[in-house]
Specification:
This protein is mainly β. It has a single domain, classed as Metal Binding Protein, Guanine Nucleotide Exchange Factor, Chain A. Helices cover 9% and strands 41% of the residues. It contains 2 helices and 10 strands. The strands form 3 sheets. The chain has a 5-stranded antiparallel β-sheet with strand order 4-9-8-7-6, with no helix packed on it. It has a 3-stranded antiparallel β-sheet with strand order 1-2-5, with no helix packed on it. A two-stranded parallel ribbon has the order 3-10. The longest helix is centred in the first third of the chain and has 6 residues. 26% of the residues are buried.
Length: 127
């Protein structure tokens, strides 16, 4: 496990965060309609490994389907840098948008494992 401190932000920089992430452990892409339309690519981190540095008041929340996950986006630029959730597999987690990590190179991203989740069939937790 190679845990590394990563920094991230929305497009306009109003929302900024940092998280301890092991990208080599893998990322996820879900095929539910929301994730598909957003082209969401996320890395799951425990809530204790995530810190919102700036922009709490700029975040707007959207909840869909079961209304259990908080999909958060910047009210200024509209980018969704992360969201909060809870599952039997991960416990309380933060789904960090890989595209919002400011200190990851294209070469690093090309080497990151990706696991596909089947949210469209509502079996994403089984994958």
């Amino acid at each position: 496990m190679t845990m590394r401190l990563h920094h991230g932000s929305c497009h306009c920089g109003t929302v900024r965060f940092e998280a301890d992430i092991d990208l080599a452990a893998g990322t996820i892409q879900c095929n539910c309609t929301l994730c598909t339309k957003q082209r969401n690519w996320a890395v799951i981190v425990p809530r204790a490994a995530f810190r919102l540095v700036h922009g709490d008041t700029a975040l707007t929340e959207y909840r869909c389907n079961t209304r259990t996950e908080q999909h958060l986006f910047c009210a200024t630029c509209g980018v969704r840098p992360f969201g909060y959730g809870s599952s039997p597999r991960w416990g309380a987690y933060v789904a960090v948008s890989v595209a919002c990590l400011d200190d990851v190179t294209d070469a690093e991203l090309a080497a990151v494992p990706v696991r596909r989740l089947d949210g469209r069939s509502d079996t994403w937790a089984d994958m």
